[in-house]
Amino acid sequence: MQTLSLLWGILALIGMLIALMPCLGALNWINIPFAAVGLVISFLVFGTSRAADKSGSIAGIVCCLIALVLGTIRLFFGGGIL
């Protein structure tokens, strides 16, 4: 499950980077819910894993939070279209 959390966070970051390009800002409407689901999964994995095995879920939480915050800021300033 650690790997799933980390992979989901990486995919959310990649989607956010693609959505930062001009004329692709509307992709954030897909990427923000994707990152939110990844954040929930990462928190669930973090809560159920042992103390020594939490690094993947922490990285997933950080990646999903970055994608969520930057995607929301991009939508706010870009109007969701550009």
What does this structure look like?
By secondary structure, the chain is mostly helical. It has one domain (2-78). It has 3 helices and no strands. The chain has helices at 2-19, 28-48, 55-78. α1 (2-19) runs antiparallel to α2, α1 (2-19) packs parallel to α3 (55-78) and α2 packs antiparallel against α3. The longest helix has 24 residues, at 55-78. The relative contact order is 0.25. The mean pLDDT is 90.
In short, what is this structure?
With 82 residues, the protein is mainly α.
Task: Supply database-style keywords.
82 residues, 3 helices, 0% strand, 77% helix, elongated, mainly alpha
Domains (count): 1
Give the % helix.
Answer: over 70%
Mean pLDDT: 90
Strand segment tally: 0
What percent strand? under 5%
Number of DSSP helical runs:
3
* Terminal Cα span: 35 Å
The dominant shape is: elongated
Largest sheet geometry: none
- SSE succession: HHH
Alpha carbon gyration radius? 13 Å
Low-confidence stretches: none
Q: Helix/strand-derived class?
A: mainly alpha
Task: Give the secondary structure arrangement, pairings included.
Elements: H1 2-19, H2 28-48, H3 55-78
